[in-house]
Amino acid sequence: MKKNISLCALCFVISGLFLMSCKKVDLKELEYQHITRGEYLQAYVKKKGGGMVLWFQVFDQMDNTSDFKKAKFTSDTIGSYPAKINEDKWIWLLVNDRIEIRLVAFSAVKDFQDTGKLKKFIASFDLAGMEKITGPKLKAADLEKFIPKLGGQ
After folding, report:
1. How far, in Å, are 58, 111, 125 from residue 145 at the CA level?
2. 77-78 and 41-47 as β-strands: parallel, antiparallel, unpaired?
3. What pTM, to 2 d.p., does this model score?
């Protein structure tokens, strides 16, 4: 009886570790497919040697009434930042009450259709650096320094 309970407990621990490892995000395995700089920064992310897995946009909403700011109350947060989360699909995050990150899993590929992976990826942005932004509205080229370094860059 004790042997069965111990075996079940071991299987439970191993399966939990396996599931946690599945949510790992290895930035070295990802690369930018295309970065667009306009009124905002937009980037497509793909797996090395594979296809696109997600895309994101970064906006400085300093002088704009963003959709995020219109909905002032949100119960979701990532760290201390307010977030809008659509499970396994997308995350919008607001940093410093002005920098908005919209991160979306590519629907044709399952790789990032996981809220845990999306949260880990969005946490790889320089959120602390974004928190220190003051002054005039930043352009896309200025926002680029805050995006994750991919592919061992």
Report:
1. 11, 25, 9
2. unpaired
3. 0.79
